[in-house]
């Protein structure tokens, strides 16, 4: 998936037309995030850097389009923040979708890869002296 591209406007152009105003009681965008996330909105304890990997290659027939997109993206490990950015959905919505998928065992969560501590300075000096003697 590619990110949306901005359109450039030259100074001589007229401004783009204003979007149609919604009538009273209507929202300009009828699609709400709770439609995607579901009514209950339960969430697993996921962090922005938690890695998600797909356990199933093909989405089940009952999967929503967002869940199918998540499964395709998670063929390789991706963080929850990356998934949120690729799908252009808020982090909270993605965590609700991932919670449903974790419960159905379609994806697996992994702890982020931690950086290892630097090696001991005396070890590095011993290796350096050994290489100098060669």
Structure description:
The structure is a single chain. With 134 residues, this protein is mainly alpha-helical. It contains 5 helices and 3 strands; from the N terminus they run αβαβααβα. The protein has helices spanning 33-37, 65-73, 80-87, 91-103, 121-133; strands at residues 51-54, 78-79, 107-110. Strands 2-1-3 form a 3-stranded antiparallel β-sheet. The radius of gyration is 23 Å and the shape is extended.
What's this, in brief?
The chain has 134 residues and is mostly helical. The protein is built from 5 helices and 3 strands; from the N terminus they run αβαβααβα.
Kindly state the mean pLDDT as a whole number? 75
Principal-axis shape equals extended
State the total count of DSSP E strands: 3
Q: What summary fits the major beta sheet?
A: 3 strands, antiparallel
Number of distinct helices? 5
- What proportion of the residues form beta strands (DSSP E)? 5-15%
Low-confidence sequence ranges? 25-30
Helix content: 25-40%
Instruction: Specify the structural class.
Output: mainly alpha
Strands across the major sheet, in which order? 2-1-3
Oligomerization status of the protein chains:
single chain
Query: Span between N and C termini?
Result: 52 Å
Order of helices and strands: HEHEHHEH
- Radius of gyration (CA) equals 23 Å
